Amino acid sequence: MGRKRIPTSPASPFYGYPADVIAEWCGVSVGTAEHYKAGRRKPPTPVLRLFRLYRDEKVLGREWEGHRVIGEKLFGPDGKFVKPSHIVLQGLLWQALADANSKRYHELLEKAANQT
Question: How does pLDDT run across 8-30, given as a tens digit for each residue?
Fold first, then answer.
């Protein structure tokens, strides 16, 4: 028969998000996420904070695995601080490679895509 589904209130922080996404972001089962959505169970404060971090796009995705944000600084997998200027310079480097040697640029892009 299954559980009766109660629509999520627009006032809920989970409104508009599927239970499987809530479960993944919050580290809970899909059943627990469904309870949170339906208002049958009140999520603990740390769960709400974690959900809001993901919702507000303040959590790095899987492609950033190994990187850490400490305070307002980003550290690479090697533990070194990544300055905003490094990221800008990397973009400029890719742009220069594209202009200088289109074939090599596409080879490097393909290689980078296969490493993730």
Answer: 677 788 989 999 999 999 999 99
- What are the residues whose beta carbons fall under 8 Å from the beta carbon of 37, sequence distance 6 or more? 8, 12, 14, 17, 19, 22
- pLDDT value of position 96: 76
Q: What is the bridge-based pairing of β-strands 81-82 and 68-70?
A: unpaired
List the beta bridge partners of residue 32. Answer: none
DSSP for 1-59 reads --PPP-PPPTTSTTTT--HHHHHHHHT--HHHHHHHHHTSSPPPHHHHHHHHHHHTT-S
